[in-house]
Amino acid sequence: MTAGSLERIPAPALVLAAVVSVQFGGALAATLVPAVGAAGSVALRLTISAIVIAAVVRPRLRGRTRADWGTVILYAGSLAAMNLSFYESLTRLPIGVAVTIEFIGPLTLSAVLSRRLRDFVAVLAAAVGVLLISEALSTPWADLDHTGMFFALLAGVFWAAYIVTGGHTARRFEQLDGLAIALLLGAALLVPVGAFTAGSKLLEPEILAKGFGVAMLSSLIAYSLELVALRRISASVFGVLLSLEPAVAALAGLIVLDQTLGPVQLVGMALVVAASAIIMGSKQPKEPVVTD
């Protein structure tokens, strides 16, 4: 399916399809990270994605302005940092918990861009939900995995940056050229780190097979759908449409990893999803297209 054919599909449907794709890819990645580490997993994922999309899209590199390159470099950096931080959190937290904590990033972005009081209240409710799902209120402070929570929150910050820079990239680059270039840049950035930490394990057949699956689900398919959608919807609306991420992540964790969440954690997840629904229900002003 080409970017042109994707343009005929409603943008919300593209985002929701990307949500399902990326979370099941994330569950598969949770089986890959213990073998080659977070850096090795992200490097493998981005490299395979970059090779496939570059061969299909053949992005145009010449004739780009300095502003174009600045935009796509920021997008690539956000993309790489988001994935590296998230994979580090997966080594310490269940995927449903990691995604729910991470989701604070795009949810806060949506509230800030909307500038409505009810949306800030929704973010506060989401924060309570994150406290519940992380079990910070029921578990002794010393027993909490602070490092995992830190990486999940950091991934949320970079997720918000990915949404903003992805919107700018989608408007500056035709078709999927911006995504192809960003993946190539991200792979170039992380391959040395991944090779240093994982070594020859990255070339083992089983590792390559899992890496290919993660690359297709979490990078190539998901990012392509998101980039096309970002051409037609604002960053705030896009951030809210991701409200099903925690629930889909929990479902993927149950099916792929046999991970279950307790009643209190499920209540926390419901609060996050409900907060997103509140923001989605408010009429948001149309945001101007930024072309720098």
Counting DSSP E segments of at least 2 residues, the number of strands comes to 0
N-to-C SSE string, H for helix and E for strand: HHHHHHHHHHHH
Overall geometry: globular
Q: What is the overall pLDDT average?
A: 81
Radius of gyration: 18 Å
- Provide the low-confidence segments as ranges: 283-292
Number of domains: 1
Which structural class do the helices and strands define?
A: mainly alpha
Distance between the termini: 30 Å
Largest sheet geometry: none
Strand content is under 5%
Number of helical stretches of at least 4 residues: 12
Percent in helix: over 70%
Which key phrases capture this entry?
mainly alpha; 292 residues; globular
Description:
With 292 residues, the chain is mostly helical. It has one domain (11-281). It is 77% helix and 0% strand. It has helices at 3-6, 11-57, 66-90, 95-102, 104-114, 117-133, 146-172, 177-198, 205-230, 235-241, 245-257, 263-281. Helix 4 runs antiparallel to helix 11 (245-257) and helix 5 packs antiparallel against helix 10 (235-241). The longest helix is centred in the first third of the chain and has 47 residues, at 11-57. The protein is globular. The chain starts with a helix and ends in an 11-residue tail after the last helix. Residues 283-292 have low confidence and may be disordered.
Give me the secondary-structure topology.
Layout: H1 3-6, H2 11-57, H3 66-90, H4 95-102, H5 104-114, H6 117-133, H7 146-172, H8 177-198, H9 205-230, H10 235-241, H11 245-257, H12 263-281
Helix pairs in contact: 2-3, 2-8, 2-9, 2-11, 3-7, 3-8, 4-7, 4-11, 5-6, 5-7, 5-10, 5-12, 6-12
